[in-house]
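>> received
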Amino acid sequence: MELLQQTIHNIPPVDHQAAAAVKRRYDSLTKPQGSLGELETLVANYAGMTGEPLPSIPRKAMVLMAGDHGVAVHGISAYPQEVTVQMVYNYLSGGAGANVLARHAGADMFIVDVGVRVDLKEHPRLINRKIAYGTEDFTRGPAMSREQAVKGLEVGIEIANMCIDQGYGLFALAEMGIGNTTATAAIASVFTGLPPELAVGRGSGIGDGRLKVKLQAVQQALKVNKPNRDDALDVLSKLGGYDIAGLAGVILGGAARRVPTVVDGVIATGAALIAASLAPAARNYMIGSHLSAEPAHGKMLEVLGLRAVLDMGMRLGEGTGACLAMTLLDAGIKLLRDMATFEEAGVATAEPK
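>> returned
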């Protein structure tokens, strides 16, 4: 608990002067002012987070947290629970969509077992920080203890600190855990006020029958656990997963050291809601990536005050949307640094009227 409290305490305010310097430089470049639209805002906000008035392309880390969810026993996913393990091995071998887009974005991938329900084979790319063998079935009581929730958060903080110490300056959130969209729907319902009927989506592509079961599971979890919206640890322990806890910890650990996090889809945004509830200042270090096809995602982003830079109907998760958003940030930084100013190019500036 001490690491969590100290990390929250250490989150600094953003550097508005650095953000303003970026805006001034964009205005001096050989283009109409503001003509790069949200790309300019994205880079200015990033500069405010890092405190760099002329930011460089950051070294990127995709942190993937893997953990199983007890609610999966109800058949709320299109895939059996064994897929969590199988996909972790797929990530380790480099064959998943997350790996492909991480490579495309120039991000190194850190795969962390925080709660997979079986022991995984040792692998040089696997970080074993297992807290438990999956969560409990939250339709019958809390998914985890409050102490386990704190431990999950602190694992994320420790992974963030490890990456920052190695020179990484930007995080992308990724996850794997069959049942995690069900947990996220419950978390979203608490923090957004949406009824479960509007928070529960099709996740892995389930049909109407499974969707009904999934909705009933979320309704039952909320009824049985009565989570306290004003107590993020209560919400996390009763409804969350170790993957979600770990990702929330990465956000907090990054924020405390001025390292921004690109928030991926609905599950990562559920983790962001937990992080923001624990530490409102952490919102200032989050970058929205894309608008998920999951129904609650837009409202979740609105509550966080985040704007998605992409809307492509994606719902894969695993950090895929975050990777695409990182390439846009890189493009904006390259324009800022490499494009000529009016003075350098000898181009006349626009005359005010």
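>> The domain at 2-55+335-345 is CATH 1.10.1610.10 (5,6-Dimethylbenzimidazole Phosphoribosyltransferase; Chain: A; domain 1).
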